């Protein structure tokens, strides 16, 4: 999975994982579930990418 995520990154963006941090803050039903008070429809579109990035630090090939 880590390799797939890295392949998707743009060459211009780079993907230097040394010293990088990734924080998932409050990505919950209040923002992604339809009809919830704080619903942000666009938030649902980023969930697959968040899950992909989240898996990188757990991948065996991560430095």
Task: Characterise this structure.
The protein is an all-alpha fold and 63 residues long. The chain has one domain. It is built from 3 helices and no strands. The longest helix has 15 residues, at 41-55. The chain starts with a helix and ends in an 8-residue tail after the last helix. The mean pLDDT is 71. This is Peroxyureidoacrylate/ureidoacrylate amidohydrolase RutB.
Task: Give the SSE map.
Blueprint: H1 2-8, H2 29-32, H3 41-55
Using brief descriptors, characterize the structure shown.
63 residues; mainly alpha; elongated
Q: Major β-sheet, in short?
A: none
Total beta strand runs? 0
Number of domains: 1
Helix content: 40-55%
> What's the order of the H and E elements?
HHH
Query: End-to-end distance, in Å?
Result: 15 Å
Summed up, the helix count is 3
Average pLDDT rating: 71
Low-confidence spans: pLDDT under 50, at least 5 residues? none
Strand content: under 5%
Estimated radius of gyration: 14 Å
Structural class of the helices, strands and pairings?
A: mainly alpha
Shape type = elongated
Brief overview:
Helix content is 41%, strand content 0%. The protein has helices spanning 2-8, 29-32, 41-55.
């Amino acid at each position: 999975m880590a390799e797939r995520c890295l392949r998707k990154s743009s060459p211009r963006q780079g993907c230097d994982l040394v010293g990088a941090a990734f924080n998932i803050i409050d990505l919950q039903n209040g923002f992604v579930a339809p009809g919830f008070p704080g619903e942000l429809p666009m938030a649902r579109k980023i969930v697959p990418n968040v899950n992909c990035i989240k898996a990188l630090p757990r991948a065996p090939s991560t430095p």
